[in-house]
């Protein structure tokens, strides 16, 4: 089963880390990701730019509106993701707990839907 581990960060908690701790955690995270990738369990991982660089696009009644930044006011923001292969939701949760960012934010674990099944169902 494929799961998306969405990494949410809180700048207040990240800024409170001792000097050099962010880089130490990032190094550990990258090293661990390399190990998971070598095992075939990490399919992809990416960081996102800061929320201030985002654009929110909505189309209503045929009119498209583009706004700067994320729509919701929140302390935590989506900072990146890991697409993993896991045998169960429990394994995916264990993988999420291993990420150092669970200590300074939140890791949302969500199963991927079988998109090919959806494609077949709708005849696309």
UniProtKB/TrEMBL annotation:
It comes from the Bacteria. Gene3D superfamilies: Dimeric alpha+beta barrel (3.30.70.1060). Residues 1-115 form the YCII-related domain. InterPro entries: Dimeric_a/b-barrel, YCII. SUPFAM superfamilies: Dimeric alpha+beta barrel (SSF54909). Belongs to the YciI family. PANTHER family: BLL7171 PROTEIN, BLL7171 PROTEIN-RELATED. This is YciI family protein. It comes from Rhodanobacter hydrolyticus.
């Amino acid at each position: 089963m494929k799961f998306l581990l969405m990494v949410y960060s809180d700048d207040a908690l990240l800024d409170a880390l001792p000097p050099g701790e962010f880089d130490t955690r990032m190094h550990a995270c990258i090293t661990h990701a390399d190990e998971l990738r070598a095992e075939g369990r990490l399919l992809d991982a990416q960081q996102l730019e800061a929320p201030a660089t985002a654009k929110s696009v909505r189309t209503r009644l045929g009119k498209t509106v583009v706004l700067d930044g994320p729509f919701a006011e929140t302390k935590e923001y989506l900072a990146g993701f890991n697409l993993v292969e896991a045998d169960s939701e429990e394994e995916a949760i264990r993988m999420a707990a291993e990420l150092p960012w669970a200590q300074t934010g939140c890791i949302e674990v969500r199963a991927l839907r079988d998109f090919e099944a959806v494609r077949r169902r709708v005849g696309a």
